[in-house]
DNA sequence: TAGGCCATCTGGTCCT
DNA sequence: AGGACCAGATGGCCTA
């Protein structure tokens, strides 16, 4: 498990970090003074470069008259140190942006999961200890909306099957619903237009309608099976769902 | 132990 | 430029 975000952020700037190395897996990232030293970076970004490395070799030379060769070497060393410093800063900047992006992505996924939870909460009752997976939730919701729309359509048409509204939606299910989906646009927007087209839905009964989820390849329904079988939904779970006992 | 599900990280792409 | 979105990779947890 990665370290908490705060840890990562606090470790971001090696210049201000004096803590021991982070346990987080930030490969290649400067996590402590040792890394800074390895890159010949100062322990403090605002302070001077590490003196030891710069000073030690030159002390023996201070007594000498520096030749052109020495000056050239010194220039090269300075350029090298500057390059390393700028690369490290760039790395640190990239790292900082990545950490922020990770944070946003995490929040985004949390929001997505919250929306999925909200969706689960308005779906027909399940045993409390059962939680639909994400894919099950989406598939179930898709089919459930279709079933609701179809129920409304039958009710509005006053067909013999219109009693399905009551059979589909026993009282305990109704309060948890945010409201009936618009039979036309909402249903269409949920799936491929052909599969959920309102005109197609109006053309046939729910059970024989080839455009219904029941007729899709994921949807199994047969004469011997009085239940809607929703893709991804465990059958035993389905049978405990009061909203889907319509064709008993 | 294999497989499913999930959270998280990551780099790429698109949009504002 | 920065944020949103996306898909792939990875590792942890759980269950059959």
Automatic annotation (TrEMBL):
Chain ranges passing through the membrane:
none
Q: Which UniProt keywords apply?
A: Transcription, Transcription regulation
Give the compositionally biased regions (Low complexity): 199-216
Identify the stretch(es) annotated as Disordered. Answer: 1-85, 199-219
Q: Which residues form the BHLH domain?
A: 96-148
Write down the Gene3D superfamilies for this protein, in alphabetical order: Helix-loop-helix DNA-binding domain
Keyword match Zinc: no
Q: What is this protein called?
A: Neurogenin-1
What is the native source organism of this protein?
Saguinus oedipus
Taxonomy-wise, where does this protein's organism fall, top ranks first? Answer: Eukaryota, Metazoa, Chordata, Craniata, Vertebrata
| Gene that this polypeptide is encoded by | NEUROG1
């Amino acid at each position: 498990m990665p370290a908490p975000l705060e840890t990562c952020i606090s470790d971001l700037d090696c210049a201000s970090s004096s803590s021991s190395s982070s346990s987080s897996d930030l490969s290649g990232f400067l996590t402590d003074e040792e890394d800074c030293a390895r890159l010949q970076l100062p322990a403090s970004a605002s302070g001077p470069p590490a003196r030891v490395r710069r000073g030690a070799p030159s002390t023996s030379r201070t007594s000498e008259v520096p030749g052109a060769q020495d000056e050239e070497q010194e220039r090269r060393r300075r350029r090298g140190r500057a390059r390393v410093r700028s690369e490290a800063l760039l790395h640190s900047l990239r790292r900082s942006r990545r950490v922020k992006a990770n944070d946003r992505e995490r929040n985004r996924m949390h929001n997505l999961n919250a929306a999925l939870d909200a969706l689960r909460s308005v779906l027909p009752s399940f045993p409390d200890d059962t939680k639909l997976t994400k894919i099950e939730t989406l598939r179930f919701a898709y089919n459930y909306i279709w079933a609701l729309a179809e129920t409304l359509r039958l009710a509005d048409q006053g067909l013999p099957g219109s009693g399905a509204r009551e059979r589909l939606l026993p009282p305990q299910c109704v309060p948890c619903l945010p409201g009936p989906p618009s039979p036309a646009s909402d249903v269409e927007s949920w799936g491929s237009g052909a599969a959920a087209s309102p005109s197609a839905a109006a053309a046939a009964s729910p059970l024989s309608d080839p455009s219904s989820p029941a007729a899709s390849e994921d949807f199994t329904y047969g004469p011997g099976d009085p239940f809607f079988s929703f893709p991804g939904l465990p059958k035993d779970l389905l049978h405990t769902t009061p909203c889907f006992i319509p064709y008993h």
